[in-house]
Amino acid sequence: MTNALLFKEWKKTKWFAIGAFAVGLALLAYIFLKLGRSFRLVGLEHLWDVIVNRDQFLFRDLKYFPLATGFCLALAQFVPEMIQKRIKLSLHLPLPNKKIVFSMLGFGLLALTIIFVLHVAIVLAFAGIYFPKEIISSIIYTILPWYVAGITAYTFMSWICLEPTWKRRIFNALIMFGTLQLCFLTDFPGAYGLIILAVLLIPFYVLPFGYFSVQRLKVGIQD
Amino acid sequence: MKNIKYLIIILGSLLLAWLLPKSYHLVTDIASPNIFTYYSSIDKAFCAIEFDEKEGHLIRKNIKTNRVYSELEFDSILPMFYSTQLFADGRMPKSIDGIDINPRIVNSKKFFFRVKPADKNKPHIPLYTLFESMSGRVRIEMPGDVFRLRDKIEFINPETNEINTEKSEKFNHHFVKRGFQFPAKMAAGNPSTRKAYDEGYFIIDNMNQIFHLKMVNSMPFLKKVPLPSEIVPEYILTMEPDDRSFYAFVFDANKKLHLITTDSYKLQEIPTPNYDVDRDQMMIMANPLYWNVNVVSSRGKEVMALHADTKEIADRTLIEGQAVGTNYSKYFLPFAVGFTSGNTKYIKPIIHFGSYLVLVTNFLLALIFVFIIRYRKQEFQFIPVVWIACTGIYGFITSLIFNR
C-alpha cells in the first residue's frame, strides 16, 4: 500500500523533479562558464585573492535556486491533493493517517534531497579542482543555509497547502516568510559557521506541521 | 497534535520576538551624534565639531574653554589635522613646540588607524599572501602563491591548486629551527599591493609567542618577538607607516594595547581608555606631535591625547553618550532576539532582556488570554497561559492565532 502511495507521488512530481534537476544543471553550467571566463581573463591568483582578502563569493547565483525548487515541488505535490479535497481519498486508505502524511512528505523530502545533494556535489567537485580546502569549506558554510531554506520552504509550503482554511494559511505563510528569512540574513561568506547545525535542524522542526493541518481537515475544520 | 500546536506557537513567538523589536527600532531609531574631536597642538586642549541644536548648524569649538572658532580659525587651531590646507595656504607655522614642521615630517608621521569589533569577529579563510619584501621593484607584486598554517606551513600555487613542496619545506625548516609551535592562533598582515613596502606577517603561535615572518630575496625570514611574560597576545593588526617606526599593534589578554616598534621589536604600551576589542571601536589619529586615541563604547566617546614620542598622556576627556529618547519597548516587549550585530559578521542568536516591569504586562496578557478562551468556550489550557506569562506579547499573539 505504501509503495502504491509513493508511486502516486512519483507520478505527480516526476516531471517537475526531472525539470528542476535539469534547470539546476543549466544554472551550474552557466556559473561554471562564467567562472571559466574569469579564470581566463584575470587568472586564478587574482580570484583567490578577492575570495580570501575581499570576502567575495563566486557562487552567489545559486542563492534562490533551492528556495524556488522547494516551493515548486510542494505545490506540484500538494495542490492536486487540495483541489476538490482529493486528499480525503488518500486519507481513507487502510493505513494510519500519520503514515500516509509522513510518507507523502518523506517522498518529497527525499526527491528534494537527491536533487540538492547532486547539485552540491557537482559544485564541490568543480570547486575542488580550482580551490583549496579552506575555500571549499567557506563555500559549504555559505551555500548550506540556502539549500536548507529550500527544504524548509518545501515543508512550509506543504503545511500551507494541506491547511483547510484560508485565514490560517495566511498566518502559516507569515511564519514561513519569517523563518525562511533566517537563512538569508547575510551574504557574507561563511557567516553561518557558528550556527550551521542549528540551521540544519529547522526543516525537521517544521516537518510535523503538515500533519497538524491534516488533522484539522479530518475533524472538519474548513472555510 | 497538541505537541505540534505548541511547536508552532513556540516558533511563532520566537519569530515575533525577533521581528517586533526590529520593527519598533525601524520606526523609532535615530542617529546618535558623532562628535569629531582632535587634540589641538596650539590650544593644548581638545577641540570638536558638533551640531548646535540652537544655532541649527555645525560649530567648531574648544571643549575646555567653549570658545567657538570660525572655519579658518579652526584650521589654524588644528594645524596637524588640516595640514594640507595650511601648507596650501602658506599658513602652517615653521615649528610647533620646538619641532620643525614641514610637509615631509607631517606626512610621514600622520596616520589613521581604525579597529572595529567586526574586523576581528568575522569568518576568515586562513590563507595568506606573502609578498617578496626586497624585490628591488618600486611596486609590490603578487608572489604567485599563498600559504596556509596548520601543522606546518604550506605554499599553494593558485594556478594549479597544488602545493609547492620545495618552498614549503624550505620555510617549514625555518619555522622548526626558530621554535615555532604549530598550529598558529592567528596571522596578521596587510595583503595589499597598494602600499609603499611590505613587512610580511606577525603570527601568534600555539604557545602565545609572536613571530615576524617575511620573504626576503625568496628566502624565509622568521624572527621571534621578545615578549614580557605578562603579555599574552590575543589579536594583532599590522600597519606599514611611512616613517617605518613600528610594525604592528598588539591587543593583549589584559585589554592593553602595545606597539611592536622597529627598534629591535621592543614593545611600547599605548595608554588607552578602557577598551574591549570585541565590543568597542577604536581610532588612532596620529601626527608628529600627538596621538589622538578615541574609543567609542556604550559609555560614550573617550578621547586621549598622547605625546607622539613618549606615549605619555597629555590630556583625556569623556564625551558621554547622549540619551536618544526613552525606549518604551522595554515595558511591553519582554525580550528581543537578534541574529546580526554591528560587532560581528557572524550570524548568531543574541538576546536582550527588557525591564522587569514587563512582567506586569505579561501577567495582564495571560489574564486576557484566559478570558478570551472562556469567551470562546474552550477548555482552560495551562501551558499557553504559562507561555504567555513568560513571553508576553509574543506568546499572546501566537497563542490567540494558533490555539484552535
Automatic annotation (TrEMBL), chain A:
Keywords, comma-separated and alphabetical: Membrane, Transmembrane, Transmembrane helix
Domain of life of the source: Bacteria
Keyword Transmembrane belongs to the record: yes
Spans through the membrane: 15-33, 100-129, 135-157, 169-188, 194-214
Name under which the protein is recorded: Uncharacterized protein
Source species of the chain: Marinifilum caeruleilacunae
UniProtKB/TrEMBL annotation, chain B:
Name of the featured protein: DUF4857 domain-containing protein
InterPro entries referenced in this protein's UniProt entry, alphabetically: DUF4857
Domain of life: Bacteria
Keyword Membrane: yes
Alphabetized UniProt keyword annotations: Membrane, Transmembrane, Transmembrane helix
TM regions (residue ranges): 353-373, 385-402
Transmembrane keyword on record: yes
